[in-house]
Amino acid sequence: MPEEYSTTSAAIDRQPSLDSLDDEALLDHLQRAACDYFVQAGNPRNGLVADTSREGSPSSIAVTGFALSCYPIAVERGWMSRAEALQRSLTVLRFFHGSEQGDHPDATGYKGFYYHFLDMHTGRRTWSCELSMIDTALLVAGMLVAREYFDTDADDERELRELVDALYLRVDWRWAQDGEPTMRQGWKPESGFLHYDWDGYNEAIVLYALAAGSPVHAASDACYRAWTLTYQWENLYGHDFLYAGPLFVHHYSHAWIDFRGIRDRFMHEKGCDYFENSRRAALVQREYARRNPNGFAGYGESCWGLSACDGPEGDRLDASGETRRLFGYSARGVPYGPDDGTVSAPSALASLPFVPELACQALRHMLARYPGMLREGRLAASFNPSLTDAQGRPWVSDGHYGLDQGIVAMMIENHRSGLPWRLMRRSPWLVRGLRRAGFRGGWLEEAAPETAP
Amino acid sequence: MTQPGTTPSLPQDEIECCRVEHLHPTDWRNPEPAARYHLVVIGAGPAGVAAARTAAAAGARVALLERAQLGGTSLNTGCAPSKALIRTARLCADLRDAAHYGARIDDTGPPDFARAMARMRRIRARLADDTSAQRLAAAGIDLFFGEARFAGTDCVRVGDTLLHFGKALIATGARPSIPAIPGLAEAGYLTHENVFDLTALPARLLVIGGGPLGCEMAQAFCRLGARVTLVQDRPLFLPREERDAAQLLSDALARDGIAIRLNTRITAVHAQGDVRRVEMISDNYHTIVEVDAILTGIGHVARAEGLDLERAEVDFNRTSGVLVDDFLRTSNPRIYAAGDVCMEHKYTHAAVAAARIAVCNALFRGHERLSRLVIPWCTFTDPEIAHVGLYVREANRRGIPVKTYTVPMHEIDRAVMDSEQEGFAKIHVQDGTDHILGATVVARHAGEMINGITLAMESGLGLRGLERVIHAYPTQAEAIHAATDAYRASRLTARVRARLARWLDNA
Fold first, then answer.
1. Cα–Cα distance between A334 and B197 in angstroms, integer?
2. Reported pTM
3. B248 lies within 8 A of chain A by CB
């Protein structure tokens, strides 16, 4: 681990008695700890941020997008100077702008997209990973937050905005359709586009909206609608909602897009919106945990959150001698699993804007009952009360994941002040994309008309 | 084509002799043909036999032509043997889980594969009785064995005999389609046409293709003790089914211990002695798997070669098979087709239903449409995956607003009692109505459960009508009734409840 950044800094080891804090102070504590992740796990030379706090972790472009989104939060909360936030943002934007784009196997990106995982030092593709459409969208969304936040006429801020525009405008979203009606999930220089079907509702609205908003390389007009044709509107546990199993799906686009009151054609037909849908999704998750069909330890109305997260691996024998399957890092979901008793506290907390009281109640319960899920003052990715050590302590995921910290920091801020939503409502590219995707109503009606900078 | 050395040979025992006597008697002599038949049926699989019986029962002069064995794929190399074997495999899985139920199994030895196959053959021979040559002849059908070739637009030759017909029905079924993989033919492979001839279990089996048959056989052979690798070139198994169903199946197959290779393409096969080295690629990852046997031919192509269809002026292409309209009529108005040779849905029950329509339309001036049939289907894995009617994506594409009532099986008492709570029943209705568009059931007995929904759909019964149908407690089929409960509850909006409360207060 190089000296200039450390993901396991002892500096964060401040463990106040969280029980004594009121909700606001508790959220403030966790949000600050989450924002600190991006400082500790970032490489100041190129601005890239590590995927996890584990030794040797590469950078994740999505986590870097979360970092760009969180610097303004840190500034507004007084945890970081505006100058430092600007410098960090500029550093990473300059890196991406100057990075190699091409079909070389160890480039940083291609066609304006970026590889999912980059080497922390060189910024080049690592792990033979895919050029990722959704992760690029999360990165670009973070860039757009920075573009709207740094809005003065200072040279650095102007440069930042120009870099963001250049980086956004060079993304060839149409290419990423590969001639198909919907977006492909990924591409590799060795084998072309990935075959993974991407059916059904998922976290990709922000991808589709950004793809629709480009004035130069927009996705096809029918692209977003083609994707929504794979949706399933379901009645489950008494709730009507646009179904997706893992909880994060109901959060990721929502971190950047204020879905209150705006509707696409699908939601218009259903008399709902994506914000309300995420509220119902949280209720479905909570109800699943209450019913706890597999009888896992801890599950209940105040202990819920099945999502894509780290988890214990390998099969183990339980007390009755039966084999229990464990799923490692996987997209856990409700109601069909996979479910091995692993709960993602960050995902429950990220439901804060949708179900504030229930999310806080769950957070407090989980913290009180399983204090080990707080590592170095911030939430671990997950814990599993059904798997305990000799002292009866539940399994807890090692270290931290940048995605968890990012979604927690952003959703707490959206709950507290709505800053990320407010900034993104000003983004001409997002506004244009949402309109082209067929969103109408609410704040979109008052948003500035499309303007090309 | 399999190499001679790798072709399993079916034991020529009493059971097999009995089956052959039923399905192609060694001393059979074709009858003297009538001057002209009302209906000539080519192919004596489920569709052909159903058509011949239906027509003969109505008094028509019927000839039935078969080149090999009566009963077709379904009886001989398809449904009958596979489901008999799956029953043994399912029992093996139950024995594996015996401790969970508090049962004790002292003998933990491997399954007796040879005995399982012998049981399958006995069952197949017994089922053959119903389709036997003797029974068909007794039903008044002129049964001809031999290769059939059209000799004109109204006549067909079987062997040296020329048969004239008023109407004809092509029901020659389908045959396995073999993927073009370098080295596969040289290395040898099994298909459903000969896999049930095995008497010894291959220790390591590679199954190519994750459609219904591939998944069923992969799971069955795995549970019978083989180390199975299942390769599918798509991102999920059962591409036609909805994502959750395919995902649950994938989880179940992995739990059984099958090595799952999704998004994987086989690039070459090399035989080294008795071992087959299979090279595969997924994105940019190359791997090699060594196995003892390969099962493939999971897809099907229509079996129409050698029929001289052009002489009969019947249009055909390799993708769709014999081309028919919604009345099952070919480009020659005298000639109809039914079953796997012309239909997208290649199921025994669909073939039989279509054959009856074809007979009605051909002989009795009927106007019944294939598209009006409500055809359920089921993949007999564990859990089973059954479907009827529209999928949500189809409804969306057609612009039909759809809402799905989802009941996880863990909500159903009997499923919990049986520790069979994996799966769901999803009933798709036209949003704002109770009109059932379709349904998918994933459950251990989904194949049985789908019939109730099919009945409702065929009868025009919506969820409100289905709600009045009392389901026996405790049964897993209560999942269907639970969906109607959810429908009722969702109609009780706050406004309706307030109105009811006012009414109750005033009553």
1. 43
2. 0.94
3. yes
